[in-house]
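Give me the fold.
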Amino acid sequence: DYMHPEVGVKTTDPALFGRNYFNRYSAPETEDERAEILAEAAALKKSAVAYMHPEVGVCLEDANLFGRNYFERASAPDVESMEEAEERAKILAEAAALKQLASDYMHPEVGVKTTDPTLFGRNYFNRYSAPETEEDEFAD
């Protein structure tokens, strides 16, 4: 079977024979190559996990390895001034308002919700003085 090479070939004719390419005496050593391939696959998996999950952090295997944090070094600039913090808050408030406006525009089925009882509006299409859109003769 092609899908199950481990089963082997069974024959009843003694005149049929074949030579196994992998079990011959002159075959190259494959166990070392297989171990190298498995080690490379494990290293690739470790790199992929480290890339896809930056929140995990770096695990050091060697005590001689170290690095400097750019943001926590002594010569790092101050976080931000009060003017920059106020400007940042203003920009974030404008972004939140724009996001709400875009959401209201893209979903008109949600409707308008208000908490002020003095606010009201008229529907142009459902008012009493709106012209009829269908004539009685065309409605049938």
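The chain has a mean pLDDT of 80.
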